Amino acid sequence: xxxxxxxxxxxxxxxxxxxxxxxxxxxxxxxxxxxxxxxxxxxxxxxxxxxxxxxxxxxxxxxxxxxxxxxxxxxxxxxxxxxxxxxxxxxxxxxxxxxxxxxxxxxxxxxxxxxxxxxxxxxxxxxxxxxxxxxxxxxxxxxxxxxxxxxxxxxxxxxxxxxxxxxxxxxxxxxxxxxxxxxxxxxxxxxxxxxxxxxxxxxxxxxxxxxxxxxxxxxxxxxxxxxx
Length: 228
Description:
Blueprint: H1 2-9, H2 16-24, E1 34-37, H3 41-53, E2 60-66, E3 76-82, E4 86-91, H4 96-105, E5 110-112, H5 115-124, E6 135-137, H6 138-145, H7 154-161, H8 168-180, H9 189-208
Parallel strand pairs: 1-4, 2-5, 5-6
Antiparallel strand pairs: 2-3, 3-4
């Protein structure tokens, strides 16, 4: 997949200044965002209005949730988009056309964490990809900040740069997996959407160092109950 590998690597020089900004904004705090789950045409319309309304949005945070880590056999279950104010979780099977429209038509900067994986999973299903010069990757940026770090997972970087409690949701999810026998391929999307959307927004914050306006927190556990 030459598009995903080589072109993402070429962004390192361009992202050096942004990585310095990322380093300068450690521990700005992780507060709640307005979270949205697309399950109707009305939700989809609201999402598209949100996407087009903010002309000053510097980056669109993107994350995928998949059934596993192998491009050859796993597939995307959920795609999240977010910025400093909002996070949107979109079930892939139900709203693939909506997600397609974003990647085909949105002409501003995207930020991923491990873009090679996310874009690779999307490409395997024939999804159009953003232009290479619009793709930013917080994994690449973390190497620019400090190439000695061993743990470059999104939650760990968010804990370092955004909020020390940023891994709390991951710990809760592990407990749910243990209690229910679910995994990434079987957990109900409706039960996990708040947690997943929170992860997407962490990627945006890890990249930008921006502190959101709201200071309220929301407990994620209640959203992890089985869907009725």
